[in-house]
Amino acid sequence: MRVAVATACANIALVKYWGKRDAALNTPAAGSLSLTLDRLRTFTTVERIDANADALVLDGVAVEGKALARITKFVDLVRGDDPARVRVTSLNTFPTAAGLASSASAFAALAVATADAFERTLTPTELSVLARRGSGSAARSVFGGWAKMNAGAAPDGSDAAAEPLEIGVELAAAIAVANAGEKDVGSTDGMELTRETSPYHAAWIETVERDLPTAIEAARAEDLDRLATIVEGNCLAMHANAMAARPGILYFGPSTLWAIDVVRKLRAAGTPVFFTIDAGPHVVAFTPPAHLDAVAEALIDHPEIATVLTSQMGEGAHAIEAMP
Ligand code: PMV
């Protein structure tokens, strides 16, 4: 074993993943499309420790319980019968577990660092499959820029992996971070409750299957108007589906509706910009880099928006020499 360090960027989905095919293998019921973002980044070290249990240090704080159990379960996928225990030390450049895609960068970085620590050589597809076992969206963060997740069909989940897409259009993101703590309903519980109880779930999966190829086509054609309609519609359909679960899951906060309105007014006035929202109240506005500052400035002016993070497209997960 060796000490391994890796970094990965989070990603934000333009066509969303919300619903699993197989909960144990963590395979998605449909594909998805995302952009990897450089401002939301995780750095992770995996090293052997002389102990009978793994350890987790997240942003400088030792963490136990559910979060550590999730890490141990993940490391076991690589460790197999090897009795070695590890310490995972992770740093995020953004707030953790607030619906800001922290699990995507976390498990993509952890996949690279764990494989490296146990001296396993994995192909990018195998790394994406491994990252998926930690978090569905993490499969996409193995790759930089535009990434497409394939739902796959193999019973062992070996083809439920992301792939990078060659798409010329550059988009940047302004993320209106709401004043909220950790989210109440995590994505795993939220998607299971939605699948089990929402009357709209089958229609949602069909919506994704339609939106995925058309969003890719619109992006390739650099048709941002068409892409805006697909991405916003897909996001609202995901949330409508979650809202229709019993009990209903509502991730929006007061600033969410305000920010949606700001983005739509900017677009109506001629700025190429569109929004999406994950499992939290934060609105992510995508726009070409030339418009990023103006979009970010328009989004800050709400009492419940703490900050607006701006990001360019990010690189794929990879090994690095040392933590920052
Ligand atoms: O990777 P998970 O299990 O945290 O799920 C991500 C779910 C969304 O962020 C809401 C959508 C997506 O495709 O990233």
Task: Provide key terms for this protein.
26% strand, binds (3R)-3-hydroxy-3-methyl-5-(phosphonooxy)pentanoic acid, 324 residues, eight-stranded mixed sheet, globular, 14 strands, alpha+beta, Ribosomal Protein S5, domain 2, 37% helix, 9 helices, Alpha-Beta Plaits, four-stranded antiparallel sheet, 2 domains
Walkthrough of the structure:
This protein has two domains: 3-167, Ribosomal Protein S5, domain 2; 172-311, Alpha-Beta Plaits. The chain is globular. The strands form three sheets. Strands 1, 4, 5, 6, 7, 8, 9 and 14 form an eight-stranded mixed β-sheet that branches. Strands 11-12-10-13 form a four-stranded antiparallel β-sheet. Strands 2-3 form a two-stranded antiparallel ribbon. The mean pLDDT is 96. By secondary structure, the chain is α+β, with helices and mostly antiparallel strands. Helix content is 37%, strand content 26%. The chain starts with a strand and ends with a strand. Strand 2 and strand 3 (27-28) form a beta hairpin. The site of (3R)-3-hydroxy-3-methyl-5-(phosphonooxy)pentanoic acid has 15 residues, from helix 2 and helix 5. (3R)-3-hydroxy-3-methyl-5-(phosphonooxy)pentanoic acid binds at residues 13, 16-18, 32, 101, 103-104, 135-137, 187-188, 278-279.
